[in-house]
Amino acid sequence: MKIYNNYILIIAILLLLTTVILVAMGQNALDVYYSIYIIEALIVTELYVYFNAKARRGLNLVSAILFGGFLFIVSSQVIRILA
Amino acid sequence: MLILSFILLALGRTIPRLPPEVSTLLFETGIDNIAAIVEELGIKSKAIYLPSSLTSGRPQALIPLYSNPSPPTITEALPQRLIVRYGASPDDVGLLVTTIGTTVVSMLESRPGPTPEELESALTSLFRGILGIADGVGVIHRENHIGVEIYNPRIESKATWFHQCLGGPLASVVASVAAEAWNRPVTINQEEHHKGKCSIELEVLG
């Protein structure tokens, strides 16, 4: 179970650090926070290649859901700029 | 919080249904029974780990009842029995037993190829990702010898008669996976445990 604990800890620490840094920079846009969180989560998930097949299937589903949210934010920004 | 919740939900489904204590109980009971047979028969020879192509099914270990200076040559698939004859000589009789490696090999998504890189990747996936009993694996291959180093193993090998015959749990897994990868019989030449490292040397036969 050590690899799972490491994975969850790294993601939690990374998201926390990102929040602290973005707040310190005075960032107020929620979509920026969400986009950076998703990119970080996707990168860390891809780096952990040695999960078993069941865990990988579950995480692939999570990645797909998060990526869907990311695409929604990007497309809403594109529409806003074009409009 | 939402991202972490999704990830925890996905990983929560992968937790084994059986508690580790029950798994340990089943594991030790099985080991004790085979150890009793090996000790009662007074077998001193080292086990030969066979690939699935030589056991008509899954990779298993053959324990010759009589020690020979030269390792036996097995060319045909052995029958699925406990006591098997593997050669023409009357002494060519052995025990064909299921080991931890037998079960663990079936957990691999695909059969590894006969290269040190593929073996290392398969063993790392098993030890680090699936079983969670070590932090990493290094493999060196020279001629018919394969050297495997397992970093920070969290399972110990006891110095019993049975372990001298079949090797420890880690060595058993390594030998089974190597036999399957090279598709040839494999024996454990050496198994050493240092602080934070386990070194295993295998010999590919045939």
Describe the structure.
The complex is a heterodimer of chains A (83) and B (206). In chain A, 86% of the residues lie in helices and 0% in strands. Chain A has helices spanning 2-24, 30-47, 53-82. Chain A has 83 residues and is mainly α. In chain B, helix 4 (116-130) crosses helix 6 (169-182). Chain B has an 8-stranded antiparallel β-sheet. Helix content of chain B is 36%, strand content 23%. Chain B is of the alpha+beta class and 206 residues long. Chain B has helices at 2-12, 20-41, 100-105, 116-130, 161-166, 169-182; strands at residues 48-50, 60-64, 83-85, 93-97, 136-142, 145-151, 186-194, 197-204. The longest helix of chain B has 22 residues, at 20-41.
Summarize the structure.
The complex is a heterodimer of chains A (83) and B (206). With 83 residues, chain A is mainly alpha-helical.
Q: Order of strands side by side in the largest beta sheet of chain B?
A: 3-4-2-1-7-8-6-5
Q: For the record, give the distance between the C-alpha atoms at the N and C termini of chain A, rounded to a whole number.
A: 50 Å
What's the story with the biggest beta sheet of chain B? 8 strands, antiparallel
For the record, the count of structural domains of chain B works out to 2
- Extract low-pLDDT stretches of chain B: none
CATH class of the largest domain in chain B: Alpha Beta
Tell me what the CATH architecture of the largest domain in chain B is.
2-Layer Sandwich
Largest interface: A-B, 24 and 20 residues
Oligomer description:
heterodimer
**What is the chain-wise order of helices and strands of chain A?**
HHH
Strand content of chain A: under 5%
Q: Please give the count of helices of chain A.
A: 3
